[in-house]
Each structure stands twice: as structure tokens, then as C-alpha cells.
Amino acid sequence: MKRLFTSLAAALVWTSAAVAAELIMVEQDGCFYCQKWDHEISHIYPKTDEGERAPLRRVNLRNLPDDIEFSSTPVFTPTFVLVENGKELGRIEGYPGDEFFWFLIGNLLNEHLGSEATQL
Fold this sequence. Notes:
The protein is 44% helix and 21% strand. Mean pLDDT is 86; it is low at 4-19. The chain has a four-stranded mixed β-sheet with strand order 2-1-3-4, with helices on one face. It has five helices and four strands.
């Protein structure tokens, strides 16, 4: 019983650490590049390692949430902000296309959260 409890406690600690970060997508109505991201990436992102490391949360540029401490107010859409414990770690401004997005988001996650191999 003690071993089961220890395993469950360790799993809970690992799970909370694994989802402590999130990727905030700042968007607005009528944003062509937001729509392009939706078409090319949105359906794939949650199923990827990147999506597991930093689940996506979408917010509107005109109604930014109070629970995020941005290093500066986002101006462009889309802006992708990596957040951990409510504080901005880094960002990608704009959507440069699917291949470049994956490259940039991978670098952003590895720079601020460590490589995935380190996380496991």
C-alpha cells in the first residue's frame, strides 16, 4: 500500500510539473495569419510533444487575461507566448508558416523548459 501511495504521489508531482507551462496564443477577429495557423497547426498541436509540454490557451488581444504577467503588451497577432506560473518566458510574434513555426516553438520550449529528453 505504501508503494502504491508513493507511486501515485510521484505521478501527481510529475504531472503538475509537466503541465506547469502553457502556450498562450494571442489572437483577434479577422487576423489572416491566425486563420492560417488554425488551418495548418491547430488540429495537430495538442497531439504533439510540444502540445503536451505547453498546452495551448487562446486569448483575445483586446481582452488579455489578468493572470498572465507579459514582459510587454502583445501588439501583433498571432503572438505565441510561453508562460510558466503566470510569467512570460518568451514569445514568437507572427506566424511564419508551419515548418518555421515548429522550428521556433521547439527552440522556445527547449530554451526555457529544457530539452524533452531532460524532462523525462
